[in-house]
Design goal:
313 residues, mainly alpha, 69% helix, globular
Length: 313
């Protein structure tokens, strides 16, 4: 543990795409995001993850799961991280007077098959760029920081001979927990909180950078986060970016499952394969990046644009 005229038009999010230009009223005491302190998530996540890891390990010891195996430990750590994040979101929203239902929003009326088709096309282009950017990022790391690249390859290498329970649990984490909770935090909380403080353009960039640096491919995943944030602005609901994020992770999960057991890791061979794929990465980025840039430019909000949360009143 993680999308344009062209394939996707500016109204990829449906008929409500023009709401991003609405004027945002000055933030005041009635804005609940003014009371929310996003930085409190850091100590909460550290302490909460440690507590939940301990609790899950005790549970594993008392059940047939057992504890100590790498697959069990990875599942426990993943559940603990997202459990801690879920508890922080609930606590922070209740403390600041933010109804979770309103933060989630509702699917726009008039969202039809054409809207979903355009969203699927946007997803395909975004996945293509994310894939190409990994080759470019890995090539750069192989030159300036080969040790970092070796660490990432080892961390991302799939478990050998994974059990069915491990596969299913990790799939649920990737396709359900990660999209719901990451979109709730990065788009629902950070975009609205930082948007009320600095304006939406800065909030979009800052939240996407934060999203990207927490993943192994910061450029590609950061752009996935930016597209998801623009979808949130267009539709005024987290449902669409959650589905977008889930579909992205589902593609990656299915790809991993189809690859089967890849066997023992040969780091040197993997690095060489990534370096040899640089031309493919450049070509794919040259096709997909202009489409995404066009989509971003057409849907970029004004500095005084209304917060997505405000538009759900």
């Amino acid at each position: 543990m993680n999308h344009d005229q062209g394939p996707a038009a500016a109204d990829a999010a449906g008929p409500n795409g023009d709401e991003g230009a609405a004027t945002r009223p000055p933030a005041g005491p009635s804005n609940p995001f003014e009371k929310l302190r996003a930085t409190s998530v850091i100590p909460w996540m550290i302490v909460g993850t440690l507590i939940l890891v301990g609790a899950f390990h005790v549970f594993a010891l008392l059940t047939p799961l057992g504890a100590g195996g790498p697959q069990t430990s990875e599942v426990i750590f993943g559940l603990a991280i997202y459990g801690a994040l879920a508890s922080w979101i609930v606590w922070a929203c209740r403390r600041s007077g933010i109804p979770l239902r309103r933060l989630l929003g509702a699917l726009p009326g008039g969202y039809n098959w054409l809207s979903w088709t355009r969203l699927a096309a946007l997803l395909a282009v975004t996945i293509g760029f994310s894939y190409s950017s990994w080759f470019l990022f890995a090539y750069l790391l192989s030159i300036v920081a080969p040790g970092v690249l070796e660490f990432l390859i080892e961390a991302l290498w799939p478990e050998s001979d994974p059990s069915t329970g491990y596969r299913l649990t990790m799939a649920v984490i990737a396709v359900v927990l990660a999209p719901v909770l990451e979109e709730g935090f990065f788009r629902g909380i950070l975009v609205n909180r930082w948007g009320s403080r600095w304006g939406l353009p800065t909030a979009l960039i800052a939240s996407s950078i934060a999203f990207g640096v927490l993943h192994a491919n910061p450029v590609g995943i950061g752009l996935v986060g930016l597209i998801a944030a623009l979808l949130y602005l267009q539709t005024r609901t987290l449902i669409v970016p959650i589905l977008f994020h889930a579909a992205n992770n589902l593609v990656a999960t299915v790809w991993d499952q189809l690859a089967g057991d890849v066997g023992p890791l040969n780091v040197a061979a993997e690095i060489q394969e990534l370096r040899e794929g640089i031309l493919f990465g450049i070509a794919l980025a040259a096709i997909t990046l202009p489409i995404l840039i066009g989509y971003i430019r057409r849907n970029w909000p004004a500095r005084d644009a209304a917060l997505p949360y405000d538009a759900t009143e």
